Amino acid sequence: MKEYTVTIRFYEELNDFLPKDKKKVAFTLCWKGKRSVKDLIESLGVPHVEVDLILVNGISVGFDYIVQNDDYISVYPVFERFEISTTTRLRPQSLRTPAFICDVHLRKLVKYLRLFGFDVLYDETWDDKDLAQIAAQQKRILLTRDRQLLMRKIVDRGLIVRNTSPQKQIAEILDRLDLWDRVNPFSRCMMCNGKVAKLYNNTEEFEKEKPRIPPGVLSWCNKYYKCTQCGRIYWEGSHYEKLTKKIETIINQKSNT
Q: What's the pTM value of the predicted model, to 2 decimals?
């Protein structure tokens, strides 16, 4: 069986997945038998969905490229904030399409993403197979802290969430995917992910929903909103003010992520 020797280097945040002696340096790999560059990359613990550009001897290649002896391989992360449209990309479309699905361990992040107005699916009963299938079928970005989940072949959109604090996680996602200009607070229901619309006073719909609103709130509040999916009623009370402060705090992290 033929022996292969290559030199490979990973750039920027892809180094998060590598052992200390392989971070930010070119290193040599040796093995026997043919293998694709995707298989080679994931054998080192780097999920393919975190990769957006592979150069072999200075030429862009796809994941199905069969590695040749003496190749020099450069592997780059998601380039959402850079224009590389003239270079072959490895996913069918940009991750800037902000529709997500989160695994069971990111429940708090789900609420923050919805608070910021993003479409996020979540169900604590979904296993890894369910998450991968839904992400692939609905073209959603799969967010997880489990790198093995993102190595499933059918997943082509996804990110490993590095931070453990929900507030830092949302800032991380918005920064890495350059989605700060897509933020639209309070436009999604934090409970069910449905879109939130204004519930206008003195309308037939308002009169129908009025019994669900506490009398004390009706005495001072003039602005109401309703989830178009689950019917939940929202208004700008003390909870709204607390959430607004959280949003402001997270947005202030933009320059620090």
A: 0.79
How many residues comprise the chain?
A: 257
Tokens of 171: 């800032």
Instruction: Tell me the C-alpha distance between 83 and 180, whole Å.
Output: 17
Rounded CA gap, 211 and 183, in Å? 32
Query: Looking at domain 3-77, what is its CATH homologous superfamily?
Result: Beta-grasp domain (3.10.20.30)
- CA-nearest of 83, 69, 70, 77 to 41 is 77
**Cβ proximity of 118 and 124 under 8 Å:** no
Sketch the domain layout of the chain as residue ranges: 3-77, 99-186+248-256, 196-245
Instruction: Name which of 24, 18, 74, 76 is nearest 46 in CA terms.
Output: 18
- For residue 103, the model assigns a pLDDT of 96
Say whether 100 sits in a helix, a strand or coil. strand
Rounded mean pLDDT for each run of 10 residues along the chain, 257 residues in total: 95 94 96 95 95 93 95 86 53 66 96 97 97 95 95 91 94 90 94 95 92 93 94 92 93 67
In whole angstroms, give the CA distance from residue 196 to residue 235: 11
Exposure of 71 in the CB half-sphere (CA atoms within 13 A): 26
Locate all alpha helices (DSSP H) within 119-220, ordered by sequence: 128-138, 147-150, 166-176, 204-209, 215-218
